[in-house]
Amino acid sequence: MSILHFRKQFTVPPVAIEVPGIRVRTFEARDIEPWLALRTRAARGLSPSVRPWSADDFRSEMLKKPWWQSDYTWLATSSVDPSVIGVVTLANREGTEATVPVVHWLLVDPDWRRRGIARMLMSHLEMAAWDVGYREVQLETHADWHSAVAFYQSIGYAALRDRSPR
Predict the structure, then answer these.
(1) Which value, to the nearest 10 degrees, does the dihedral of the CA atoms of residues 42, 46, 50, 51 take?
(2) More confident residue, 85 or 81
(3) Residue pair 152/138 in contact by the 8 Å Cβ criterion
(4) Looking at the 3D structure of the chain, how many domains does it have?
(5) Considering the domain boundaries, does residue 80 fall inside one?
(6) Which tens digits make up the pLDDT trace of 88-133?
(7) Which residues contact 21 (CB under 8 A, 6 or more apart)?
(8) N or C terminus: which one in the chain shows less Cβ crowding within 10 Å?
(9) Domain range holding 154?
């Protein structure tokens, strides 16, 4: 299984992208179950697959991590239907030389894909990274998740190296 590592560098502040009829808000305690349901829908059919998560998994993999902050997890909802249709988290990975901002779990409901929701969520993440002083964002994705790779490349992310060191 090959993991690709991407980064996007910024020389000017990122600009928020809006999608008509879609709202973005930050994470609230009541969002654990909707986040899990979205992850299940978004991961269905992926190869390599991802294992299902429980609320306990969410707590241990997200909430209990020192890098996790509720105001750095953005959720997209439709103005017609309040269900969560997209989500992304900005995490900080402690490197040997510096802290690096990374994209963590960008998910969009399959029924809502190709409508600009992922671009909108990423623009919020990138603006937040810029606002706290970062001038690049990194991410990892599976090489076999071709649509994810193509999406990240389409919004300016370039390969940092072929494989993750982890």
Answers:
(1) 80
(2) 85
(3) no
(4) 1
(5) yes
(6) 999 998 877 888 999 999 999 999 999 999 999 999 999 999 999 9
(7) 78, 79, 80
(8) C
(9) 3-159
Helices (H), 7-158: 32-43, 55-58, 117-131, 146-154
Q: What does pTM read for this prediction?
A: 0.93
Distance between CA 112 and CA 38 in Å, rounded?
11
- Give the confidence band of 82 by pLDDT, cuts at 50, 70, 90: confident
Q: What does the alpha-carbon distance between residue 24 and residue 77 come to, in Å, rounded to a whole number?
A: 7
Could you give the C-alpha distances from 129 to 8, 80, 133, 154, in angstroms and in order? 11, 30, 7, 19
164 lies in a domain?
no
**45 domain-assigned:** yes
Residue 165 lies in a domain: no
Closest CA to 86 of 50, 124, 113: 113
